[in-house]
Amino acid sequence: MSRESVINWIVLAGLVAVPLWAHLSDEPFTITLATRAVILALAAVGLNIALGIGGLVSLGHAAFFGIGGYTMGILAHHAQTYTPVMEWPLLIEGTKSMPVIWGLSILFSALAAFLIGLLSLRTSGVYFIMITLAFGQMFYYFAISWAEYGGEDGLSIYVRNGFPGVNTLVPIQFYGLCLVALLIVLGFNAALARAPFGLALGAARQVPARVRAVGLDPYRLQLLAFTLSGAITGLAGALFADLNRFVSPTMFSWQLSGELIVFIIIGGVARLFGPVIGAVLFVVLEHWLGGLSDYWHIYLGLMLLGIVLFGRGGVIGMVAGRERSHD
Amino acid sequence: MTEPVLQTKGLCKAFGALRATDNVSIDLRPGEIHAIIGPNGAGKTTLIAQITGMLAPDSGQVFLDGEDVTRTPPPTRARMGLGRTFQISQLAMGDTVLQNACLGAIGATQRQWRLVRPALRDPELRDRAMAALERVGLSDQARSVTAELSHGQRRQLEVAVALTLAPRAFVMDEPMAGLGTEGSARLTAFLDGLRREAPILLVEHDMDAVFALADRISVLVYGQVIATGTVAEIRADDMVREAYLGEEA
To answer: What pTM was computed for the model?
Structure first.
């Protein structure tokens, strides 16, 4: 077993053991922190498909996170106020069912990612970063001015949505749901990276001319990667909204897009568990350092600087060494 | 005369006042190696770029199997049977040798939308890739990371990727570049046999290789084809001697 997979198993064991321990010793706040970490990890794992394999540095992934969040917020808001989402041309009611909300979050964020990708992928490098940022900001300002759904104040959802057979009001059960979602997506990512699609996408990052010369279109490969990436981040947004029982325009903020990139860089770009480690470290630091000082971001910044300057492979790269050939 | 597999008609491309390609009409017939030679800056690379679709000509046409592909983007030309190699190796350095060959197999079979099953566990992709590596003598290196290959091995891999496509015509841009005498001789022997599978449009500086391989040679000077003919004809051509071969011939 490679050192990287040893790290992965340790992280996985921690994600199972720590919340269980917290549950048994009645520390619900620790479970909430762990849930937050897992959901942010899920969002960053989504981004890692575009950024890690595809080399697409998107500074607009908060758009998909927010779309997922608002999908949940709007549907649940209508369900709790007993008003339809729309009556014409067809009647659509709100819902408190997680599976339905998740499905729609994935659908809407995938659609948004497809449309944004269609335009932004025409550019590359710093222009791509700027155009994705611009799209993200469009959603942010739209949400702020959307008075029907709380505008700047956002929407509160009073009771967490339901999942068949699970009591989502019990922290450890909701955590379990989030962890399972993360694991499924990680499994999908691991397969994707080795599948023909992942191989072609990685080659499109490294040598686009070669990819064209063998009869493949980098643009289409990147468009699918961006769409899948956005869909997963959208799912994370729906879970995040359910964790907080609150959605607001801050879910669309560009700072969040930046944080997702930071998670990936801290953990290790294109590493399966890179974003997970990054998100966990972020949440832990935010909690501990945040308790010590209001200026805890300085320490996070120092850490990021250290990693970028001295350990390009992130935490995983520093512990496991350079990535070896796969399979 | 048999129908040419690849053909250009009156191809022109200017960069400002510089006529990089000036009314170039050449063809590539089944079973032949057609070499394009010319001094540095003669416009060989620009010509290749228009034939492969990386660059659009100002005027003129490119035909592949009789079909006008002048406005067809490179991926489509590749799917129609145009296999190329690059002057400067275009390989995914972080991937293994086998993965690079496999990329060609994915393109050839158009299996890029398969999202789950590992590419290297797909027998068809794997066999295609391994067969190509074997033919250029790289099968022992299949699991090496491409960045660790020597320059010569990268040139071999460059050819192997084109082989996975089983193309109708090869376009090779200086495949011998940077190879030693031994490497050049081995690749020359290999290309010699390859022409029976698909004709090769060969841009090459190595005159020994060109004279050993070419059925026909076209000489490009200042963007114009000043002569086309057999090896003997080109060697004997006064204009060519003056413009290009000089003392060498």
So the answer is: 0.93
